[in-house]
């Protein structure tokens, strides 16, 4: 297979080895991933690669920006947001995954965006690793400059909600058109999260909006939390994310009303939705029907 070219006048082997070293990959992996389509080079300023699929060591959506200065190649690594496991039965899921008090936050129905600083410029990156022109234009990047001037190693992980965007159509009372709500703050190079109390304190310091906190629960309080989720579902809310205090473990659970609404819409346009979309939600509804018995 003919090797694809880097859209930047740098030593190809030099940049590959630097990226492989920083990501902990074996020699030759970047070339292999590029030729197999696992990663994509995007010719932009600065140019970057994005991981289109997950690998054993790198999350899907990870970005590596690079530029050459005085003969040296500099790179910025922005890790992709890790996949959150879903539980189909809340009570059993809490008991299985946690052994101490958990923090519960609202799961918003929008699109996932990481905001961070790249070579001194604030950028908004989608879940898939795209440096999205629309999102960068709409987000008030000046608002986050103070945060990153004091926390340059961090990235904000959040959800964009509202109807005034090309990706989602969910309207919320607190943000009908376009709004960004942070649910995690992580180290952009290692993906390590900061703890929940520290996150709240940090975001409040810079007046950055965050997702709503539902409360704190013990692992055996699943039935109590399930009642709260059903109330949220009646209000048109999507669901919850359950986290440990450190933020290093989390699971999500969707209100059955949200799945019902999506299926109702999808069955009206059944030929436009793929089988995985519908099948996952039908299975989810089966487990939730059993749990409500």
Protein model, in words:
About 30% of the residues lie in helices and about 25% in strands. By secondary structure, it is an alpha+beta fold. The chain has three domains: about 10-75; about 90-105 and about 215-293, Dna Ligase, domain 1 (2-Layer Sandwich), CATH 3.30.1490; about 110-210, D-amino Acid Aminotransferase, Chain A, domain 1, CATH 3.30.470. The strands form three sheets. A five-stranded mixed β-sheet has the order 5-13-12-6-11. Helix 3 (about 90-95) packs across helix 7 and helix 8 (about 255-270) packs antiparallel against helix 9.
Can you summarize this structure?
With 293 residues, the protein is an alpha+beta fold.
List the helices and strands and how they pair.
Blueprint (H helix, E strand, L loop, with lengths): L11 H12 L5 H8 L2 E4 L5 E4 L11 E7 L2 E7 L6 E2 L3 H8 L4 E6 L3 E8 L2 E6 L6 H6 L6 H6 L3 E8 L17 E9 L8 H10 L7 E5 L4 H13 L4 E5 L6 E5 L1 H13 L6 H17 L2
Parallel strand pairs: 5-13
Antiparallel strand pairs: 1-2, 2-3, 3-4, 6-11, 6-12, 7-8, 7-9, 9-10, 12-13
Helix pairs in contact: 3-7, 8-9
